[in-house]
Amino acid sequence: MFSWMGRQAGGRERSGGMDAVQTVTGGLRSLYQRKVLPLEEAYRFHEFHSPALEDADFENKPMILLVGQYSTGKTTFIRYLLEQDFPGMRIGPEPTTDSFIAVMYGETEGSTPGNALVVDPKKPFRKLSRFGNAFLNRFMCSQLPNQVLKSISIIDSPGILSGEKQRISRGYDFCQVLQWFAERVDRIILLFDAHKLDISDEFSEAIKAFRGQDDKIRVVLNKADQVDTQQLMRVYGALMWSLGKVINTPEVLRVYIGSFWAQPLQNTDNRRLFEAEAQDLFRDIQSLPQKAAVRKLNDLIKRARLAKVHAYIISYLKKEMPNVFGKENKKRELIFRLPEIYVQLQREYQISAGDFPEVKAMQEQLENYDFTKFHSLKPKLIEAVDNMLSNKISSLMGLISQEEMNMPTQMVQGGAFDGTTEGPFNQGYGEGAKEGADEEEWVVAKDKPVYDELFYTLSPINGKISGVNAKKEMVTSKLPNSVLGKIWKLADCDCDGMLDEEEFALAKHLIKIKLDGYELPNSLPPHLVPPSHRKSLPKAD
User: Fold this and answer.
1) Helix axis angle, 288-320 relative to 327-336, nearest 10°?
2) Residues 384, 35: contact at Cβ < 8 Å?
3) What is the maximum alpha-carbon separation in the chain?
4) Of 387, 299, 382, which is closest to residue 348 (Cα–Cα)?
5) 352-361 long-range contacts, Cβ below 8 Å, gap at least 24?
6) What pTM did the predictor assign?
7) Which residues, in sequence order, are CB contacts of 31 under 8 Å at separation 6+?
């Protein structure tokens, strides 16, 4: 393990414990500043791709970026998660949010305008100053003391418009701003309205700005309670078809279906589906603090690989330039031949095509530079990054894994996340294997007369049926043997290889649970234990 890790580990032992995030953050910052930053500066990486990373970029909380067309429920979604209003919030059917709003934790409620925000070294937004006053006048930070925001920050974006207004009226490059945020956030949530599935050219360009960040993207189909089940199936299919044309990945994007606001459902047919989808989305968001260190490490690796490729491109262009005459003609030729140069560099340095920047954007940027002022290839800088990728990163991954085991699980708490974690409104409460958990009577008893009739047709001896006879009945469920075997193990409470009438009734009840689409418990819950067997089983903790 390399030196800075050793020093930090020693400090942790002496102090009796150090915050895991700070430990990993220090390692990431050190790697970037010593290995990657010199390569970026040598080949003007920050002018072509992304500004240099600062301390706040490594230390900030996980961030979520919400993107969608106007009136898809982005601001309402934030209100739903926080369960309270935030400064600058405006909700309506018209395009109401005309600014980027960073919703963050603060001891007192208030807002900070963009021009003041980008000079605050404690906030990860300093490099946004390059987008000028037109953007900064439409950027603000909304701070409030909310439990959810102690773990995550949320970026609300303006609703995406159609036509010339999107490109011209904003006064800044909207897609470039989205790309800047996409490189730094932990999750990108695309919101769609069940009645507005069309992806306009402007929305398509915005989604393309997330190129290379596909692993961060999640999709929310909002307001799904406003259509019935048949319409919902058509809407979902149409959405997947539209997304497939815009996002070129072999994997299918995860789409969460529901109605994400604190109002009664207009159509309750799919209530159970909406609840399950909401819980899946909550779990994904709640896991972000736990995965923050890995995400930052992953982003650093992607950045280092791009910096390497950029260095190869720039140094090649420098090498091909003549010393005296014909510089402009040669520059035009090299820009035109850039796709061929990409292929040549891929072969020469064995680099994947996916690591190269987009050709068209690179060609446009190169028009503004004098190739003769570029630097030649510096092998030592490349070697430093290669060494980091092949050796240092694996050591850092080991440190992250060790810290995750030693530290308690970090989860987002508060707001909507607390509403479904305890009590009768917890997902699955009173359903499946949990049915009857808070009732005095054995839940199987209500169907036991029917099960008893079957039991006595299976030739019981001394009040019990053999495994062979039980199997004949159980296989009629058409469940696979692996599932039936688990049910047998749960139902045979005294492990004698036979079933009495209560155990048989329990087996039939567990089969019904599985056929209804619920999961079987790994061990038999106390409320499902047959009354005559409860004394023979050890009490649950």
Assistant:
1) 140
2) yes
3) 106
4) 382
5) 355/305, 355/306, 355/308, 355/309, 356/309, 356/313, 357/48, 357/49, 357/306, 357/309, 357/310, 358/211
6) 0.76
7) 300, 388, 392, 393, 396
The helix/strand/coil state of 92 is coil
How many degrees, rounded to 5, is the angle at CA 56 between CA 41 and CA 60?
135
Around 181, how many Cα atoms within 13 Å sit in the side-chain half-sphere? 26
What are the helix (H) ranges across 16-84? 20-31, 37-42, 45-48, 55-59, 74-82
Q: Which two tokens stand for residue 12?
A: 């942790």
Which contiguous run of DSSP H or E holds residue 466?
A: strand 464-466
Instruction: Say yes or no to pLDDT of 252 above 90.
Output: no
Give 496-520 pLDDT, tens digit per residue. 999 999 999 999 999 999 998 888 9
| pLDDT tens digits, 96-114 | 557 899 999 999 999 999 9
CA distance 241 to 226: 21
Q: Rounded to whole angstroms, how far apart are CA atoms 182 and 216?
A: 8
Measured between alpha carbons, how far is 99 from 128 in angstroms, rounded to an integer? Answer: 14
Q: Alpha carbon 465 to chain centroid distance?
A: 51
* Confidence check: pLDDT of 4 > 70: no
Q: Are 158 and 33 in contact (CB under 8 A)?
A: no
Nearest to 155 by CA among 114, 202, 193: 114
Q: What are phi and psi of 255, to 5 degrees?
A: -115, 125
State the average pLDDT over residues 409-425.
69
> In 17-46, which positions are buried (b, 16+ CB within 10 angstroms) versus exposed (e)?
ebebbebbbbbbbbbbeebbbebbebbbbb
Instruction: Identify the H or E element spanning 489.
Output: helix 481-491
Instruction: Assign 161 to helix, strand or coil.
Output: coil
User: Alpha helices of 321-463 — where are they, by DSSP H?
Assistant: 327-336, 338-349, 359-366, 379-387, 393-406, 416-419, 448-455
Residue 224 tokens, joined: 């799904």
Query: Interior CA angle at 39 toward 125 and 46, to 5°?
Result: 35
DSSP letter (8 states) at residue 389: I
Distance from C-alpha of 242 to C-alpha of 73, rounded to nearest angstrom: 19
Q: What is the mean pLDDT of the chain?
A: 86
Q: Where are the beta strands (DSSP E) in 87-158?
A: 100-105, 110-113, 139-144, 153-156
DSSP strand pairing (139-144 vs 110-113): antiparallel
Which residues have a Cβ under 8 Å from the Cβ of 452 and sit 6 or more positions away? 501, 505
Confidence of residue 420 (pLDDT cuts 50, 70, 90): low
CB proximity list for 109: less than 8 A, separation 6 or greater? 87, 143, 144, 145
